[in-house]
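Tokens as discussed.
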């Protein structure tokens, strides 16, 4: 900007002197510091809010186990995302993963949802079985793939757990256990897997 204004209006022009005066530099520095402080504060607030939401969700699942005797968890994995990303680009892989997540939210709006890219977990109170879960997710991801020949090849892995204790919940559900034991790949010792 300084170089452009130097050639456009000249170094001696009032506009140039005003924009690049010591006072302007001080004001801009103060604004930058204030902006950074607000950003840090906002980030901390967002993290605290998210932590409270996760804690509330886990407590609700524990309450479901206590009141219904069990919680049904579906672990839905889309293992082909890396292949889709390589073949069609990052946006296509993102669209497929988002389609899988959205289909779960639409099919089970009252369930508890968690997960990460390529892997999503859904929890329902009691011992339940959703017969059309795989077909719904597969149809949603197929529509997100731009290549007609590839749509039927998308693999969807679904594992169903019936959990009867907090220990089993901690082995499957993210954030329900300490970091060292909360990996989604960990399998519960006593939960029913189907």
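Sequence:
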């Amino acid at each position: 900007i300084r170089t452009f204004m130097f050639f456009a209006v000249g170094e001696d022009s009032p506009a140039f002197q005003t924009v690049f005066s010591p006072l302007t530099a001080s004001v801009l520095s103060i604004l930058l510091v204030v902006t950074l402080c607000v950003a840090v504060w906002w980030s901390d607030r967002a993290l605290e809010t998210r932590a409270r939401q996760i804690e509330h969700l886990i407590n609700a699942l524990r309450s479901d186990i206590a009141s219904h005797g069990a919680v049904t968890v579906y672990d839905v994995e889309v293992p082909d995302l890396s292949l889709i990303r390589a073949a069609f680009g990052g946006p296509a892989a993102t669209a497929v993963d988002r389609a899988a997540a959205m289909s779960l939210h639409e099919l089970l709006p009252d369930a508890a949802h968690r997960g990460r890219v390529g892997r999503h977990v859904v929890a329902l109170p009691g011992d339940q079985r959703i017969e059309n879960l795989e077909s719904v997710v597969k149809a949603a991801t197929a529509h997100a793939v731009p290549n007609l020949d590839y749509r039927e090849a998308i693999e969807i892995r679904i594992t169903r757990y019936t959990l009867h204790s907090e220990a089993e919940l901690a082995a499957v559900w993210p954030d329900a256990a300490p970091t060292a034991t909360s990996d989604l790949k960990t399998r519960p010792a006593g939960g029913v897997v189907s």
